[in-house]
Predict the 3D structure of the following.
Amino acid sequence: MTELSRDEAEAFVRAVVQLASMADRALPRRTSPLTARLTEHLGAVGDDVSSTSLSVPAIERVNLQLALNAYERMVDRFVVVGLQADIGNYGGVSLAGMVTGAWHGPGEGARQYVAVDVDADETIDCLRAGLVLTEFDGAPVAALVYAADRGFQPEVYVEVVGADQPSADGFLRRLRELMHEHNAFRRKTVSFSFGMHGEFGLSFVTLPAVDRDDVVLAPGELEAIEAHAIGITDHAAGLRAAGQHVKRGLLLYGPPGTGKSHTIAYLVGRMQDRTTIILTGGAVAAVGQAGTIARALQPATIVIEDVDLIAMDRQLPGGEHNALLFQLLNEMDGLAADADVLFVLTTNQVDMLEPALAARPGRIDQAIELSLPDARGRRRLLELYTSGPLPDDVDTIVERLDGVAPAFIKELARRAELVRLQGASERASTLSTALDAMLEHATPVLRRSLSGPPPTTDTDRA
C-alpha cells in the first residue's frame, strides 16, 4: 500500500469532512415542536447558524442562575422551556442544531430545578436544563443551559443564538457581567473541598461569633493583628493615593491550641464586608482557585491553616518538589498592588516554613507569635469558659495551669461542668477534680501539646 504524503493526507481529510457535511445536509430536516418554537421566537435564521457559548465550573451554577434571574427582571420577554435534565449526556447537544432541525435528541420536557446553596442556610432553585427565550436590545435571542460531566469535572454550559451575531454576543457578555455583579460568594465565608475523583467543590461556612473580649492574647498581640488586618483596609484609599500597596500577608504562629483559629473567627466577624476563603487540610491544594475568586471579589481574605503543609522549606527533604509552595508564592506575587487581598496563614511549626514566604515583606508583612498564656491570661480564660464566679482556690488552679494552651483550659471548663453534673457540690472541687483527672489520665497527650514542663498534680507537690 502506497503511503500518502502529508499534502495528500490533508486533502483526503478535507474531502471526508466535506462529504460528511453534504450527507448531513441531505438528511431530512424535521420541524419538531422544539425547532418550531425556536423559529417562532428567533425568526428564520437559515442553516448557517452562528452561536456563542460559555462554560463555567459547577460551583458557578448558582451565579449563572442569579444572573438569569436578574436579567429576567430587566426585560419584557423571558420564557423558560424545560428540557430533559440529562440532556448534556447526549452526544452533539447543540442549540444551533435545535434551531435548524438537525438535533434528533429529546425535545421539550418539564422544567426541573435543583436547590443550590447561596449561603450557609439559604438556597435558590437552579435550572437543570432548559431553553431561555428572551431578547437583547430588542432583538430575540435564545440560550441553551445545561450541566454535564466531562473529564470528572462537572461544568455548566450556555450556548446562545440570536437573530444576528451581535445580539448573541451581547447577551452572553451581559450575562457574564450579571454573574459578577450578583456573585453569591461575595461578602460570604466559604471553604473548598475535593471529591473522590478530584472534582472541585465549595460550601458556605458559618464561623462562631467571637467578641473582642473573648480573644485572650498577650498584651499588644491582638492590637498588632487588628492594625494589619483591619487597619489597612480602613485606610486603603489613603494608602492607594500615596502610591502604597494594600495587599498583605499575616502569619499567626505558636504552639497548638493557642487561639489561632479562634482569632481568625474574630477577624472574620469584624470584617463582614470581605469575601473570606478558608483552606484547611486537603483543600489547601485549591490555593489557585482561591486566588482567582479573591481577586474577582475583593476586598477578600484567604485563610490557609497549617500552611506548613504546602510551604515547607525547600531545603528540607522533599521540599524542592513542592508545586503548591510555588503556586502560593505566585498567587501572593501576582496580586496587583492596589488589590485589597489579605492572606492569613497559620502554623504550629514556623521553623519549617520556606524563608521566601515567611521572611519576605510583600508576602508576609507581619508575623505574630501567639504564645502560651501568662497568669493573667489563664485567669481570664477561666472566667471566659466557666459559668458563674470563680472558686476561692482560683489562684492555685491558675498556678497549676502554668504552661498550658487556651484549648486545654477550655476543655478543663467543660470537664469541670461534667463533674458538677455528676454530683459535685462545690465549684472549687469541680475545677480541681477535673484538673487532677486531666493531668493523671491525659499526660502523654498533654506533654505533646505543651512547650514547657507540664503542670503538676497534688501528688507531685507532695
